[in-house]
Design brief:
- By secondary structure, the chain is of the alpha/beta class.
- About 25% of the residues lie in helices and about 25% in strands.
- The protein contains twelve helices and 19 strands.
- The chain has helices at about 25-35, 45, 70-75, 95-100, 115-120, 160-170, 245-255, 270-280, 290-305, 320-330, 355-360, 375-385, and strands at about 10-15, 40, 55-60, 80-85, 105-110, 130-135, 150-155, 180-185, 190-195, 210-215, 260-265, 285-290, 310-315, 340-345, 365-370, 390-395, 395-400, 405-410, 415-420.
- The chain has a seven-stranded mixed β-sheet, with helices on both faces. A five-stranded parallel β-sheet has the order 3-2-4-1-5, with helices on both faces. A five-stranded mixed β-sheet has the order 6-7-10-8-9, covered by helices on one side.
């Protein structure tokens, strides 16, 4: 007689718990915690459970994410409950568990999130409120969301976050913004303080807090729109900058979409990669720049303009392209081991550069190259004949004083080649 197949392990219960603790849980959530043989969670969350939850209590170590597979494997044959703050699937542990075990192995029992509580207290429509988490992430991420009249909720890392946010708002020209810090939402100790960012003097309060921001720009704040083509003054640069109108046309040709990865080769000041990432929170980019001073400048620009996740590789292309592949793999996002788009803003005549970028590009991906020199233009014309795509001349002129009158000053024209890589490509194939 063949042995009976092994029964699958019981599903892992993922229980959201709020600052109100045990009293705020539903009957189903309480039952899951009573029946659990092992309860995993943060030390603060575990302390909220009563003695009737008799399972072994295991506190998450730090760092948490690498420990998830090990702890789940150690207790695989036991009934596991995992505690999460609020809604486990909203910036919570639920995502890591779903990635590790698969959604079908989870039983998720959510609790109202701090965002739901905050919107309820403020009277803000949840669907119109943008949320930015600063838990384990740089506060500079908030900068990309700063627009006059917008309402933002920032999820704080700790008690010091409100002061950090107030300083950031002021530095970015949003000092007049109203801030409200809501603490211990949902508990009997719930409280809030409010003030204006540029005059924020409140001492750090409770570490469990959410920051509500009514964005108000100062009169002299530099306006940064939501589409590509930011003012040139938004960037620190030494002249190596894709200018505003050419930049907008270039991003239009690159056509970023959520979740895609860009390689920005010859980063200069990083403007193309930065504005690629600003189009959607899930867009990623890696920039390669051979000059160390410019590479550092790219990182500063990215941080100031709200995309600190931009990765910068210092070194010449194409020699540095293998390093770009390694960084893509380190992103931890499936499907991003090869670029969805490549922009070449400099160094086109470097031997092997264009071929290396074309080979690295995924099938169906886009390549855009800009140049102002005749030598590079001839190279792009050759590739246009071989691969097709679009070859475009971009010319911009600005009105300037001419004596007592006004005339046009022509900028150097830019030749742009944009092409989509077919599913199966060989030299001579046309799109």
């Amino acid at each position: 007689m063949s042995p009976s197949p092994a029964l699958p392990p019981p599903p892992v219960s993922v229980v959201g718990i709020g600052a109100d603790g045990w009293s705020g849980l539903s009957g189903g959530a309480r039952e899951a915690l009573r029946e659990a043989e092992v309860v995993i969670g943060g030390a603060r969350q575990l302390d909220l459970l009563p003695p009737e939850c008799a399972g072994v209590r295991v506190a998450w170590p730090s760092p948490l994410r690498p420990a998830v597979p090990r702890l789940l494997a150690e207790h695989r044959e036991r009934r596991i409950a995992v505690l999460a703050s609020g809604d486990p699937m909203f910036y919570g542990i639920g995502r890591a568990l779903a990635e590790e075990l698969g959604p079908e192995a989870l039983r998720v029992l959510p609790h109202p999130s701090s965002v739901s509580y905050a919107c309820a207290r403020l009277g803000w429509p949840l669907e119109d409120t943008e949320v930015v988490t600063l838990v384990g992430r740089p506060a500079s991420r908030l900068a990309v969301s700063l627009h006059e009249g917008r309402r933002l909720l920032a999820l704080s890392a700790d008690a010091s976050t409100p002061a950090t946010v107030a300083a950031l708002l002021t530095a970015h020209g949003f000092g007049p913004s109203r801030m409200r810090v809501l603490e211990q939402l949902g508990s009997e100790a719930e409280a809030y303080v409010e003030g204006v960012a540029e005059t924020w003097t409140h001492a750090p309060g409770d570490r469990l807090n959410v920051i509500a921001i009514d964005c108000r720009a100062s009169q002299d704040a530099l306006r940064l729109g939501a589409v590509p083509g930011l003012p040139d003054e938004a960037y620190e640069h030494d002249g190596q900058l894709t200018k505003r109108h050419i930049r907008a046309a270039t991003l239009g040709a690159l056509a970023p979409a959520p979740g895609e990865l860009l390689w920005d080769v010859g980063g200069g000041s990083g403007s193309i990669a930065i504005e690629w990432m600003r189009t959607h929170p899930t867009c990623r980019a890696v920039s390669v720049e051979r000059d160390p001073a410019r590479a550092e400048r790219i990182a500063r620009n990215a941080d100031r303009l709200g995309v600190p996740g931009l990765r910068v590789v210092t070194g010449p292309a194409p020699a540095s392209l293998p390093e770009l592949s390694k960084l893509s793999e380190l992103s931890g996002l499936s499907g991003l081991d090869v670029p969805d788009a490549v922009f070449i803003g400099g160094g086109l005549t470097a031997p092997g550069l264009l071929d290396a970028c074309w080979e690295a590009l995924r099938p169906g991906g886009r390549l855009v190259a800009n140049t102002v020199t005749l030598e590079s233009e001839a190279l792009l014309a050759e590739r246009y004949r071989a691969y097709g795509g679009e070859l475009t001349r971009l010319a911009v002129a600005h009105a300037v004083p001419v004596g007592g009158f006004t005339g046009w000053r022509q900028a150097m024209p830019v030749t742009q080649w944009s092409v989509r890589k077919p599913s199966a490509s060989a030299p001579g194939d046309r799109t």
